[in-house]
Design a protein that fits this description.
The model is unreliable at 6-20 (pLDDT under 50). The protein folds into two domains: 10-188, Cytochrome c-like domain (Cytochrome Bc1 Complex, Chain D, domain 2, Orthogonal Bundle); 192-331, Cytochrome Bc1 Complex, Chain D, domain 2. Helices cover 29% and strands 1% of the residues. Helix 8 crosses helix 11. The longest helix has 13 residues, at 172-184. It has 349 residues and is mainly alpha-helical. The structure holds heme C (HEC) (2 copies). One heme C binds next to helix 10.
Length: 349
């Protein structure tokens, strides 16, 4: 059995940026993201079309340390390409969004498809999310006026803003839209698993295929929450990874006791690169994560009904890990288009 993602409900609208009005950032060069043929179209907001010029500007902004008050940190410091745009090895980032440094920076694999952002799902668009780290006192801690002035006085940015937006004016709207547009290009669907699933030449191992069957079968039952082309149901669950949660998760938005410890089901794409795991980075390895599922969790009262002892054998656990490893997309983490433009490019000889 292979998977046909087209049969899965997506319920998202594709609005391509095909206008030519530079003033609203829709011109001059339409540049749709490169999407695997078995993926649904990337949802693009009508008021932020994708152009080559905006991509270039957004990419530079994403990696620019001018964003932090002391010019030490960029978005790319916590969201590193080599780690699937997660924070390489750090449980909680130095600086953080929202909740006083208790959270693990998620990868940005296919973030364009996510209807809810942040672990508890409190933000509904990439455009709105960009502002969070900028004004957060423990993250960039910069006043937006200072940021806009820094960029306006930079030797490079005014020309980039003009190309992308039709004038040199640096505004917060243009900044947030340009960074969001860049994030929407971070599409990953070229792992060995994907190639196998599309019947293209691949190196997927027998163990990984067995892990796939377990993952999508009733034994390990992972797919009920991590289903679909992006391995998430875009919903919120308590997977009982601790007996008590310091971070109340979804409860912070709803104040419902039953939402304590519920977090957004994360994508599992490039998961081998994004350790440590869970909202607080409390699990170091995939093995540790799977053993928690196999045990049926740690007995939290809000544990999802699917959290029950699974009876996986050692071989099952190992094959599931092989399957998760096969979701690593090396072309994504090595794509020069997504790399830090401030770093000198290796010449290769
Ligand atoms: C100091 C580290 C740090 C910096 C700098 C940072 N982030 Fe994050 N990012 C995080 C953490 C931690 C989270 C999870 C926060 C949460 O869920 O409350 C996160 C979450 C996100 C998410 C939500 C992803 C999801 O799956 O829900 C996006 C998108 C994002 N960051 C983009 C950015 C952008 C764009 C910038 C630059 C403007 C940026 N980040 C700067 C650490 C950082
Ligand atoms: C009841 C829904 C549910 C089921 C079933 C489920 N997961 Fe999860 N998974 C989640 C949620 C929610 C999180 C995040 C929890 C948190 O951060 O506290 C998560 C986190 C993870 C993570 C860490 C991701 C990261 O970015 O930190 C991995 C790996 C994972 N699950 C793998 C699996 C595997 C393998 C299975 C099957 C054995 C499985 N999950 C079954 C809901 C589920």
């Amino acid at each position: 059995m292979k998977l046909n993602w087209f049969l899965l409900p997506v319920g998202m609208l594709f609005l391509a940026g095909c206008g030519v009005d530079v003033e609203d950032g829709s011109g001059p060069t339409p540049h749709p993201p490169d999407v695997p043929r078995d993926f649904p179209a990337v949802p693009i907001p009508a008021d932020n079309p994708m152009t080559r010029e905006k991509f270039e500007l957004g990419r530079r902004l994403f990696y620019d340390r001018k964003f932090s008050a002391d010019q030490s940190v960029s978005c790319g410091s916590c969201h590193q390409q080599a780690n699937g745009f997660a924070d390489g090895g750090n449980a909680v980032s130095k600086g953080f969004h929202g909740l006083t440094g208790k959270r693990n920076a998620p990868g940005l694999s296919n973030v364009a498809y996510q209807p809810f952002l942040l672990w508890e799902g409190g933000v509904e668009s990439l455009e709105k999310q960009v502002l969070a780290p900028i004004v957060n006192p423990v993250e960039f801690n910069i006043h937006t006026d200072t940021l806009m002035m820094r960029l306006a006085m930079d030797p490079v940015y005014p020309a980039l803003f003009e190309k992308a937006w039709g004038s040199k004016d640096v505004t917060m709207e243009r900044i947030t839209k340009s960074i969001s547009a860049f994030e929407r290009y971070l599409i990953t669907g070229n792992s060995e698993f994907d190639k196998w699933n599309r019947s293209e030449p691949n190196t997927l191992s027998t163990e990984a295929k067995r892990g796939f069957d377990l993952f999508f079968g009733e034994t390990a039952d992972c797919f009920h929450c991590h289903g679909g082309f992006n391995f998430t149901d875009q919903n919120f669950h308590n997977n009982s990874n601790a007996p008590v949660y310091e971070d109340a998760g979804r409860y912070l938005l709803t104040s419902r006791d039953s939402d304590i410890g519920k977090f957004k089901t994360p994508t599992l794409r490039n998961i081998a690169l994004t350790a440590p795991y869970m909202h607080n980075g409390s699990y170091q390895t995939l093995e540790e994560v799977i053993r928690n599922y196999n045990a049926g969790g740690k007995g939290h009262p809000n544990a999802d009904i699917l959290m029950r002892p699974l009876g996986l054998s050692e071989r099952d656990i190992s094959d599931l890990i092989q399957f998760l490893n096969s979701l690593t997309d090396t072309s994504f983490i090595r794509n020069p288009e997504f790399s830090d433009p401030f770093k000198p490019v290796a010449t290769g000889n």
